[in-house]
Amino acid sequence: MDCVEVEGRERLFLMPGHVGLAEDEVSLGIAQQLSESVQALKNIPGSFGHLISLTANRYKADYVLLDLSPGLGSINQNLVTTANHVIIPASPDVFSVMAIDSLARVIPQWVNWARRAAELEALSSADYPFPDPNLTFLGVVIQRYRLKNGKPAKAFETYFNELDAAIVDTLVPALRKSDIMLPDEKYVAAQMEGGYRIASISDFHSLIAVSQQKRKPVYSLTREDVKRGGRLWENTLPSIQAFRETFAHMAERVEKLTGP
Known about the structure:
- The chain is mainly alpha-helical.
- It contains ten helices and seven strands.
């Protein structure tokens, strides 16, 4: 597949998606359940991972990042279980707390399915073989909250605590039971936030609109980009620098977690 090179970001490529991919949700779901008995479906479950591997090799990619839509459908099931690692995005709200409990049940089910699927003769001998799952949990990224005096506003702080509790008490034990956790020392060495938080990213506010217009990350915006001078720029610059620091720490943690 031909990828789009991101202007100004050397060695960063985008693999174009397509709204029509959603139309494959049903056929993929059927294939993942019936491919052993219906030979015509056997190439579908392994085709997604095969395409991604071919594309990654073509561009000599160090990392392939898949941004999935929220949901528990067949496409997400396939892409998660054929990945090497998973990062779970969350927001400090009641819905994310509930979602963590749901994922603690669903991800182990997906992984167990993938392990059985990889052993099926029909899928292992397909033109696009379904790979042995090798998934590990890297952590959680919390986003979309407001800051007050440099800290999450009190309304969000409560849900930060509830998310951390749900992750530690419910999600991690379920993932450890399914053998998709990294060794504890990996998380310690990465100096995670709150145990298993890779990063906490507050709202970008008006900077996100400028970021999209200029087609560059928020943390790379300049004074000329935001068109602010004097006191306004002095107030904006610390936010941009804080976002750069946040993303730098997140990248360092991912490298430590995925490295040898």
